[in-house]
C-alpha cells in the first residue's frame, strides 16, 4: 500500500523541559487503521495535535501524501485540513451548542465553499445525518436534544463531510455507554469501508483496538516502545510494558484467569526522564544495562518492532494465550465494558 502519512523523529517540548513527544516515527498506509495506545500522559493526544498542526512540533517531519506539512503556512493548511479530519473524545463539548445538527455537519462544507445556498445545505445535512443512522427530522435539533451516542454520530459525520483521506480519532468511544459503543464502532468501520479512509485510532480499550486496528503502536513516556501488526502484537507482545497492558484486559470466564502484571509506581515525569530505558523504573525484568543504555526500536520479528534489550528473551506469549476479545473481523455484537488498561 502507498504511504499516506509519514512521521519521522517527531518531538514536542513544552516550556523548554517537558518532553511530551520525544522522537516518534511511524507511517500509515491508505485505508489502514493504526492504533496508538498507552497510559494517560504518554503523549498520544499530543501526537494527534501535531499531525493536525494544531500544535507546532519542536523537531521532526510530518509528510502527508509525500508532502512535508511540518511547517507550512496557515493558508496552505486549509487545503490539508480538508484531507485530515478529527473525531473528538467528548461528543458534547466538541459540538457548538448554538448550532443545529444540520449546521454542525455542514459547517466544514460552508468553510470550504462547497455548498451554494441554504436549500442545498439543508438537503446535504439531511443526507449526512441519514448516513449515520439519524433521521432527517433531526436536522433542526440542538446538541442538547441528542444522546451521547447520537452526538458522537454527529461528530463522525462532520469529520467525513469533506471526504478526508485520514481521520484522527482520539478516544472516540471512551465517553460512551457500553450499550451504544458498538453502534459507533460499526459506523466507523462502515464509513471506512465505504470511503476508503485511513484512521489514526487513539484508545486505551484493548478490546476495541483488537477489533479495529490493522497495526498497534504502544507509547510510553513520549516514545513508541512497540509497533507491530495486530495479529503479531496480540499473539505475543515483545515489550514488558505492552504485556502489562494486555494482562489488564479482563477475561470473560473464570476458567480464563491469568497472571495480572501490576506495574509499580507511576510513570516518571516528562520533565525528568530516566536514563537508559525510560521504563526501567517500573519494569519487572530490568537489569543494569536498562539503567544505562536506551534500547532502540528495532525488528524482533516480521514487521514487529520493540524497544527492549530483552525482547524475545522471556516467555511473554505463553502468559497471554487466554486474552479474551471480540472476534476478529465482522462486527461487534456485544462490546465488553470499559477495559481500562492502566489504573
Automatic annotation (TrEMBL):
<keyword id="KW-0547">Nucleotide-binding</keyword>
<dbReference type="InterPro" id="IPR003439">
    <property type="entry name" value="ABC_transporter-like_ATP-bd"/>
</dbReference>
<keyword id="KW-0067">ATP-binding</keyword>
<dbReference type="GO" id="GO:0005524">
    <property type="term" value="F:ATP binding"/>
</dbReference>
<dbReference type="InterPro" id="IPR027417">
    <property type="entry name" value="P-loop_NTPase"/>
</dbReference>
<dbReference type="Pfam" id="PF08352">
    <property type="entry name" value="oligo_HPY"/>
</dbReference>
<comment type="similarity">
    <text>Belongs to the ABC transporter superfamily.</text>
</comment>
<keyword id="KW-0813">Transport</keyword>
<protein>
    <submittedName>
        <fullName>ABC transporter ATP-binding protein</fullName>
    </submittedName>
</protein>
<dbReference type="Pfam" id="PF00005">
    <property type="entry name" value="ABC_tran"/>
</dbReference>
<dbReference type="InterPro" id="IPR017871">
    <property type="entry name" value="ABC_transporter-like_CS"/>
</dbReference>
<dbReference type="InterPro" id="IPR013563">
    <property type="entry name" value="Oligopep_ABC_C"/>
</dbReference>
<dbReference type="InterPro" id="IPR003593">
    <property type="entry name" value="AAA+_ATPase"/>
</dbReference>
<dbReference type="InterPro" id="IPR050319">
    <property type="entry name" value="ABC_transp_ATP-bind"/>
</dbReference>
<feature type="domain" description="ABC transporter">
    <location>
        <begin position="5"/>
        <end position="246"/>
    </location>
</feature>
Amino acid at each position: 500500500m502507498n504511504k499516506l502519512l509519514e512521521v519521522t523523529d517527531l518531538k514536542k517540548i513544552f516550556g523548554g523541559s517537558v518532553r511530551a513527544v520525544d522522537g516518534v516515527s511511524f507511517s500509515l498506509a491508505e485505508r489502514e487503521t493504526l492504533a496508538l495506545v498507552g497510559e494517560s500522559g504518554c503523549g498520544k493526544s499530543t501526537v494527534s495535535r501535531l499531525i493536525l498542526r494544531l500544535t507546532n512540533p519542536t523537531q521532526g517531519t510530518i509528510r502527508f501524501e509525500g508532502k512535508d506539512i511540518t511547517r507550512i503556512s496557515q493558508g496552505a493548511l486549509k487545503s490539508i485540513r480538508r484531507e485530515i479530519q478529527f473525531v473528538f473524545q467528548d461528543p458534547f463539548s466538541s459540538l457548538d451548542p448554538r448550532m443545529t445538527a444540520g449546521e454542525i455537519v455542514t459547517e466544514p462544507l460552508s468553510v470550504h465553499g462547497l455548498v451554494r445556498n441554504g436549500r442545498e445545505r439543508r438537503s446535504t445535512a439531511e443526507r449526512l445525518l441519514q448516513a449515520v443512522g439519524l433521521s432527517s427530522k433531526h436536522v433542526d435539533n440542538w446538541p442538547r436534544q441528542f444522546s451521547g451516542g447520537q452526538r458522537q454520530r454527529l461528530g463522525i459525520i462532520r469529520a467525513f463531510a469533506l471526504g478526508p483521506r485520514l481521520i484522527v480519532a482520539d478516544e472516540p468511544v471512551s465517553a460512551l455507554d457500553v450499550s451504544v459503543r458498538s453502534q459507533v464502532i460499526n459506523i466507523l468501520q462502515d464509513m471506512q469501508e465505504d470511503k476508503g479512509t485511513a484512521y489514526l485510532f487513539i484508545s486505551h480499550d484493548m478490546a476495541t483496538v483488537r477489533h479495529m486496528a490493522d497495526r498497534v503502536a504502544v507509547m510510553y513516556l513520549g516514545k513508541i516502545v512497540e509497533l507491530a501488526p495486530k495479529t503479531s502484537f496480540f499473539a505475543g507482545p515483545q515489550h514488558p510494558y505492552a504485556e502489562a497492558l494486555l494482562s489488564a484486559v479482563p477475561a470473560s470466564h473464570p476458567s480464563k484467569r491469568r497472571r495480572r502484571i501490576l506495574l509499580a509506581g507511576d510513570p516518571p515525569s516528562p520533565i525528568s526522564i530516566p536514563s537508559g530505558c525510560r521504563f526501567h523504573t517500573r519494569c519487572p525484568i530490568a537489569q543494569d544495562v536498562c539503567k544505562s543504555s536506551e534500547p532502540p526500536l528495532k525488528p524482533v520479528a516480521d514487521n514487529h518492532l520493540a524497544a527492549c534489550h530483552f525482547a524475545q528473551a522471556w516467555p511473554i506469549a505463553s502468559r497471554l494465550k487466554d486474552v479474551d476479545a471480540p472476534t476478529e473481523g465482522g462486527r461487534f455484537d456485544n462490546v465488553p465494558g470499559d477495559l481500562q488498561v492502566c489504573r
